[in-house]
């Protein structure tokens, strides 16, 4: 298992609580890993990926405050320094992404350009 010193992404306490809540659900597949990444598409060119997935050959594994996650090695350049939060308000509910590398974001908050 490869562990890298520079963790590219951080989580707020609220995001960690929600991730751990999802992982403790009876229907959670314990063979899956938390994946963070990007994919092409979205209003601004790239969209964030946050979900549970199988580990692949090009993945690196990281840990932040006891929470491990995987990321494709080529995605770190887009996500270095990003913070993931969990919003649980009346107007917004879900994970939010604060990415210092994004030159432009869209109103949905899940799409960005670099």
Automatic annotation (TrEMBL):
Tree of life domain: Bacteria
Core domain ranges (all copies): 9-109
MF annotations from Gene Ontology: 2 iron, 2 sulfur cluster binding; protein-macromolecule adaptor activity
Chain segments annotated as coiled-coil in the UniProt record: none
SUPFAM superfamilies listed in its UniProt record: HesB-like domain (SSF89360)
TM annotation in the entry: none
Cited Pfam families: Fe-S_biosyn
Protein name: [Fe-S]-binding protein
Organism: Niastella yeongjuensis
Lineage of producing organism: Bacteria, Pseudomonadati, Bacteroidota, Chitinophagia, Chitinophagales
């Amino acid at each position: 298992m490869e562990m890298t010193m520079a963790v590219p992404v951080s989580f707020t306490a609220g995001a960690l609580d929600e991730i751990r809540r999802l992982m403790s659900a009876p229907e959670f597949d314990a063979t899956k890993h938390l994946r963070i990444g990007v994919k092409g598409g979205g209003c601004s060119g790239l969209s964030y990926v946050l979900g549970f997935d199988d580990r692949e050959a090009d993945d690196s594994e990281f840990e932040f405050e006891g929470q491990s996650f995987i990321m494709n090695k080529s995605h770190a350049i887009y996500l270095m320094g990003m913070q993931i939060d969990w919003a649980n308000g009346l107007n917004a509910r879900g994970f939010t992404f604060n990415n210092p590398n994004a030159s432009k974001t869209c109103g949905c908050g899940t799409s960005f350009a670099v």
